[in-house]
Amino acid sequence: MVQLLSPEGEYGVPKQWAEYGKYIDRLTEADFLKFYRDMARMRRFDREAEALQRQGQLGLWVPAIGQEAAQIGSGYGVGHNDHIFPSYREHGVAITHGIDLMSILKMLRGVNHGGWDPVETRFHLYAIVLGSQVLHATGYAMGVKMDGKVGNGDLENDLAVISYFGDGATAEGDVSESFLFAAINNSPLVFFCQNNQWAISSSVASQTKVPLFQRGEGFGVPGIRIDGNDVLASYAATAKHMDDAREGAGPYMIEALTYRIGAHTTSDDPTKYRDSAEVEYWKARDPLIRFETFLRRQGIGQDFFDEVAEAGEKLSTEIREATFALPQPPTENMFKYVYSEPHPLIEEQLDWLKRYEAGFGEAGHA
Questions:
Q1: Please, are residues 158 and 150 in contact by the beta-carbon 8 Å criterion?
Q2: Terminal C-alpha separation, the chain
Q3: Residue 338 gets which letter from DSSP?
Q4: In the chain, where are the structural domains located?
């Protein structure tokens, strides 16, 4: 397993991982501080969004607490031309690529289906259907290869594709099909699996007999496991293998070993299937605490961490106020986008709902 930052916050590059260490060597102190700010920002956003859901402001929330290092590190390892195909938990990757966080909340409130432009941002829309984004990424990467935008010896202008998914998605046929098509087409694609140990209530041990990073080998997709709670390992592995993909090396899989501290979603109760001792074990390996310890050893003072905490509170207030100011989505939207053409059954259902709501008078539309 690639690990550059120990759980105690000590940095070191074992000889076998020297190729990854080269990517850390090019980082500056400003980069390290940016990583920490965004990890903290991701967590504060996550906690506020969960509170908003509990107060009825969101239909659902998908927590990612504990996965900050995997997402922020990897997100910054993706190049400025590369395309990203997320699942539904990649709030941190969204942060690293400038996605408006309110766009995510609007989607989970039902205001829209994702309010960002996937062409302009290169960050494609959240995929609620498990594994579908991996197929989409594979098709896009095949197109990149066919269009001659890879392997030209120009890392600034060539491009690659990355897709994020969880351990549960590896059991989907979509992912296996993606491995096959990516391999036989030598597509510039990095498969980034956040192994957070649980696919809702199914443990990773119940899904596989071999490490997940080996899942693609039978199809011709090599892989590696990294410490997903090590932001530096996550950054270096992603940057290196995205570079390789742009150079024409073909697909690669990264398994980031991490942990989902909270529930799968706010409709889930993890105490029904998880041992509290397991959760406490992983809490002790908190990626933010690990990186904070590293930064303090580099001489970063308390003023910086106070500034980050203050920025988190400001973000929380802004998110809360903006969410409460959102209008209710029109009821008609539930029916408007089901079919491309009018459908009599849909029209009948909409008519029934309108008559039902009218029965409550004005109070029914409050």
A1: yes
A2: 55
A3: S
A4: 15-324, 333-365
- What are the two backbone dihedrals, phi and then psi, of residue 69, each rounded to the nearest 5 degrees? -65, -45
Confidence bin at 23 (pLDDT 50/70/90)? very high
**Class of the CATH domain delimited by 15-324:** alpha beta
> What's the rounded Cα separation, in Å, for the pair 183 and 177?
10
User: What DSSP line would sit under 103-130, residue for residue?
Assistant: HHHHHHHTS-S--S-HHHHSBPPP--ST
Look at strands 189-195 and 202-203 and give their pairing.
Answer: unpaired
Token digits for 136? 């989409």
* pLDDT score for 366: 46
Strand partners, 162: 84, 190
Alpha carbons 118 and 195: distance in angstroms, whole number: 25
Exposed/middle/buried for 91, CB within 10 Å: 0-12, 13-18, 19+? buried
Q: Is the separation of the CB atoms in 4 and 20 below 8 Å? A: yes
Phi, psi for residue 41 in degrees, rounded to 5 = -60, -45
pLDDT tens track for 59-117: 999 999 999 999 999 999 999 999 999 999 999 999 999 999 999 999 999 888 888 99
Give the pLDDT score at 113: 84
CB-based burial, 105-121: b 16+ in 10 Å, e otherwise: bbbbbebeebebeeeeb
